[in-house]
Amino acid sequence: MARRSSYALRLALAFAVVALVAAGLTAMLVNLAFGQQFGAYLSAQQQAEGHRIVSELSSSYLAERGWNQAALQPVGAAAAMEGVDLTIENGHGQMLWPTTTIASSGMAAMDRAMMGSGKFGAAVHLPISVDGRVVGTAVVAFSGGSQSGADSALRGSVDRLAALAALIATLVALGVGTLLARRVTGPVRTLTTAAKGLAGGDWSARVDSLRTDEFGEMARAFDHMAETLSEEDSLRRTFIADVAHELRTPLAVVRAELEEIEDGLIPLDPAALASFAEEIERLCRLVGDLETLALADAAGFSLHLELQSLAPVVEGAVNGFAGTAQAKGVPIGLHLDEDALAEIDGTRMAQVVANLVSNALKFTPTGGRVDLRLHQIGGFAMLEVTDTGPGIPPQDLGHVFERFWRGGAPHAGGSGIGLAVVRELVEAHGGQVDVTSEFGKGTAFTVRLPQAGSPLQGAVTEQTASVTPIS
Ligand SMILES: Nc1ncnc2c1ncn2[C@@H]1O[C@H](COP(=O)(O)OP(=O)(O)O)[C@@H](O)[C@H]1O
Ligand SMILES: [Mg+2]
Predict the structure, then answer these.
(1) Looking at ligand 1, which atom is closest to the CA of residue 442?
(2) Per residue in 340-399, pLDDT tens?
(3) Which residues contact 2 (CB under 8 A, 6 or more apart)?
(4) Cβ(363) to ligand 1 under 6 A?
(5) CATH number at 303-471
(6) Is there an atom of ligand 1 within 6 Å of 389 CB?
(7) Where are the domains of the chain?
(8) Ligand 1 center to 385 CA (angstroms)
(9) Strands 84-90 and 95-97
């Protein structure tokens, strides 16, 4: 727990430290400003006191027409009561006050003790003048310098208040920091739990955050990734099940026939051998198709792309079907723009054309025709393969590119992999394949290939079959 919430703890502590520093700094500045103000106030007061003493002394000198030690006594006593260390000298530097008796009486010392500080600031020499003539000097020193008792008491209370403020600020910062940290680490922890669940095979693990901030965005990105992963996982499972199913059918037929021969129910004659050969042929074709599909799957990583004219590639692929077309009585028309360029892997693109043409020939009855048109449109090459065959029912259009999907036409042969391969390869080229069909009239497959590696994003039209998720 301590380890898991270490980030929260660090964040809360950082908050507390900031609060503490702020409070400390404030206390320091207040102290400083306060000290300066108080010092100024104090020295003004001391100056006034000095003036008052000097003017009283000059009054006494005037009244007594000279220095009279007895007359100085009230001034000296008052000064002592005020906590001022006062020494009076006459014009010749002889001490008039304190008189030796008073000085030794310890009264001054007592006063100093009463003031509590016992410390006096630096003595100041103030001349006493009468009628413009200096008649003596008052030497004054104020107790406690600028640090009088009142001053330090005030400072003390300011410091105590500052300490209290720092304590409260620190506690508030700790509280707020902890709350904030929880809000930060909470979603991180939820995400970690979900990620662990996903890693452990729980495909339903989601974060489901309703937050609108960056954490919500992170949670949604995770959920999206989890969604994609679990979809791919279920596709993989379906695919494996489909492959197993496709393999089982011919194997079951062969096994059943073998058992019948063993039981002597049917003879091992050329007809039986031909049936075996047919089933084995089917198996070979299926395995071959699977191989092609695997290659198409990996095509994205192994394409040898080259900017080239598409026409020769199309022609080469179609040539292979000349015999079949003639035998079936379905002519193939070529309308190729020799200038149509695309960045393609020639071998793979020939495979795409062959799959499309083989379907068109297979499904178009005698008397119909197949046409290939190649144009250059903007930044891409467009190849259309149209036939006058039976067409594809609208409800099937969305399925033709799925792996192992075959239309209802009975005994049409094939494993339903041809168009899946077409789509894999075209998309690996950054292109797009679409199908449109008018049931009973014919079908048109359209392949668009970018000229220079710019994927045809967003070029999808309404009736595209390829909007169905990958097979
Ligand atoms: N030109 C076409 N005309 C009519 N239907 C077609 C055409 N091309 C494909 N289809 C339908 O799409 C299905 C899938 O085609 P494909 O993936 O090539 O598999 P296969 O050719 O092995 O049946 C076909 O079984 C067929 O129903
Ligand atoms: Mg096919």
Answers:
(1) 3
(2) 999 999 999 999 999 999 999 999 999 999 999 999 998 899 999 999 999 999 999 999
(3) 9
(4) yes
(5) 3.30.565.10
(6) yes
(7) 6-151, 206-302, 303-471
(8) 13
(9) antiparallel
